[in-house]
């Protein structure tokens, strides 16, 4: 394929994936904006404290969903009898995990929230919010599981429709419960509880899908199947969980250094970062299938051209995004802080120029990690992901916070992304020196 037509194709992929990523990110941001409007800066801080719990729920869902659906895809044609009851087994196990976690959150609410960084100011809001969203644990785990199995059973259109309905419903319910019914922050929690049920209802239509092989056979989970599922789903679990762990460490360090308003400021910054990350994820997901296809045919010039396009687009997005954030940082902060708390504004305004230096590196890092996966080098991509989310970032937050204070905390992410970029560039450079011939 000639490069001009290839670049046009990759641009189309990138734009579609950016649109999909932005849709999910905007739903999270709108949910946060509603909570900030209804409950103020303390509501924003309480939400940020509870977020790692929700992230853990998502991680468990991905562990079972991606791990189980991968086993299903590998065996559904060659050995269909081997995976006939796999979905049912994981469904039962997911229900057991979900109910257990709900009980834990409701029986140990206070110690759990204190561990997550809550204090006397944020504890009341965080407690009621956590108790309600914990009721959704089972539904979210089943939803993640079902979405992945239905997609891998050849029905991605239905899973897209289910995901869109879920995100749309939560925005509508957020508005109704928070502002019309006047339930405040608890209204957002109830909206979160109901949203996965709409997705699950739509997914039930898969039973009428003409190419369906997926069956619901409820049998007690087998340890061998659970172990294989956990092994294949663990990288996705680890990647998703890194977000929750980093939020937890940021919250603990910021809370110790400057209190709840610093945690609320981090909530503003982290939600704003979701928009730029959606662009970067869209670019990375857009170039991945094309690089994998060209790698299958060993078309090295085309692979280089696609990777170069992705890196250039990410860098241009970073430049434009950083400029917009510098110019409009106060209006952006005001969106999340309609009570105009001076300390929150001060912390967020100081943090934005430092924290978002990371955008110049993070988009390129995502492209490099996706490139390594596309050329069948997942261990190097996993190594970069592990360092980016855990091994470098977490010690960097603790060390920079201790040595430099708040400024050090904000700079910990840019420094981490820079180190990962250097490592990733080294891996890619070594690959281009000795690319496989077949």
UniProtKB/TrEMBL annotation:
Signal peptide: none annotated. The keyword Acyltransferase does not apply. InterPro entries: MATE_fam, MATE_MepA_subfamily, MdtK-like. It is found in: Cell membrane. Keywords: Cell membrane, Membrane, Transmembrane, Transmembrane helix, Transport. It is a multi-pass membrane protein. One of its GO terms (cellular component) is plasma membrane. It comes from the Bacteria. The chain crosses the membrane at residues 21-47, 53-74, 86-109, 129-146, 158-181, 261-284, 305-332, 352-375, 387-405, 411-432. Pfam families: MatE. One of its GO terms (molecular function) is xenobiotic transmembrane transporter activity. PANTHER family: MULTIDRUG EXPORT PROTEIN MEPA (PTHR43823:SF3), SPORULATION PROTEIN YKVU (PTHR43823). This is Na+ driven multidrug efflux pump. It comes from Liquorilactobacillus vini DSM 20605.
């Amino acid at each position: 394929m000639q490069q001009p037509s290839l670049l046009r194709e990759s641009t189309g992929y990138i734009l579609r994936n950016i649109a999909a990523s932005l849709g999910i990110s905007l739903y999270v941001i709108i949910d946060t904006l509603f909570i900030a409007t209804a409950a103020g800066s303390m509501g924003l801080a309480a939400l940020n404290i509870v977020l790692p719990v929700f992230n853990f729920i998502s991680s468990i869902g991905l562990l079972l969903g991606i791990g189980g659906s991968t086993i299903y895809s590998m065996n559904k044609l060659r050995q269909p009898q081997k995976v006939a009851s796999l979905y049912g087994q994981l469904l039962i196990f997911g229900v057991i995990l979900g109910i257990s976690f709900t009980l834990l959150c409701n029986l140990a609410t206070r110690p759990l929230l204190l561990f997550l960084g809550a204090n006397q100011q944020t504890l009341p809001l965080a407690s009621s919010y956590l108790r309600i969203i914990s009721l959704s644990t089972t539904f979210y785990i089943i939803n993640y599981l079902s979405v992945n199995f239905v997609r891998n059973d050849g029905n991605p259109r239905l899973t897209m429709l289910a995901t869109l309905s879920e995100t749309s419903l939560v925005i509508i319910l957020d508005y109704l419960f928070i502002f019309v019914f006047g339930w405040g922050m608890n209204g957002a929690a109830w909206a979160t509880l109901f949203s996965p049920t709409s997705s699950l209802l739509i997914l039930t239509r898969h039973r009428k899908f003409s190419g369906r092989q997926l069956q619901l056979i409820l049998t007690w989970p087998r340890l061998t199947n659970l172990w294989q599922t956990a092994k294949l789903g663990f990288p996705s679990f680890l990647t998703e969980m890194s977000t929750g762990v980093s939020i937890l460490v940021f919250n603990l360090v910021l809370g110790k250094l400057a209190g709840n308003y610093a945690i609320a400021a981090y909530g503003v910054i982290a939600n704003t970062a979701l928009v730029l990350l959606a662009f970067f994820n869209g670019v990375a997901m857009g170039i991945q299938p094309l690089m994998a296809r060209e790698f299958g045919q060993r078309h090295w010039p085309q692979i280089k051209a696609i990777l170069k396009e992705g890196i250039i687009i990410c860098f241009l997005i970073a430049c434009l995004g950083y400029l917009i954030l510098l110019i409009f940082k106060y209006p952006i902060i005001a969106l999340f802080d309609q009570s105009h708390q001076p300390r929150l504004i001060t912390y967020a305004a100081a943090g934005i120029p430092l924290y978002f230096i990371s955008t110049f590196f993070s988009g390129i890092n995502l492209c490099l990690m996706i490139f390594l996966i596309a050329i069948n080098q997942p261990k190097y991509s996993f190594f970069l992901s592990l360092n980016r989310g855990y091994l470098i970032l977490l010690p960097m937050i603790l060390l920079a916070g201790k040595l430099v204070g708040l400024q050090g905390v904000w700079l910990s992410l840019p420094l981490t992304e820079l180190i990962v970029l250097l490592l990733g560039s080294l891996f890619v450079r070594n690959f281009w020196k000795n690319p496989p011939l077949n």
